[in-house]
Amino acid sequence: MKRRLSRREVLKRAAVAGVIGAVPAQVFAQRAEEPYKNLNAAEARTLEAIVARLIPSDARSPGALEAGAARYIDRALGDALAASRPVYTAGFAALDAHARGAHGKPFAELDADRQDALLRDLEQNVAKGFTPSPSAFFELVLGHTLEGTFSDPYYGGNRDFIGWELIGYPGLRLAVLADEQRMDANNPLVRVSAYDLPMFEKNGHEDDHHGR
Question: Is 205 left (phi over 0), alpha (psi -120 to 50) or beta?
Answer without folding.
Answer: alpha
